[in-house]
Design a protein that fits this description.
79 residues; mainly alpha; elongated; 0% strand
Length: 79
Amino acid sequence: MTNNIGKIDSKFRYIILAAKRTRQLQAGARPALTIQSKKFTRIAQEEVTSGLVKYDIVEEATKPSKKRSPKEAKEGKVH
């Protein structure tokens, strides 16, 4: 199934989206399409492949790291 992942840019993202959608379906969300399978995992996969699951890519803000002195690094102090 993962060889046809629609317009998703990576297999990892496809799996994460399908897993999250599966949890929504298990919690009582209504399927966005009707297929023969009654398995939530398969329904979620079809929805993701069809482009029915909307998502945003959020970039994590990186914090500037404070350089520690060699003495602090040796002592293992954490700030």
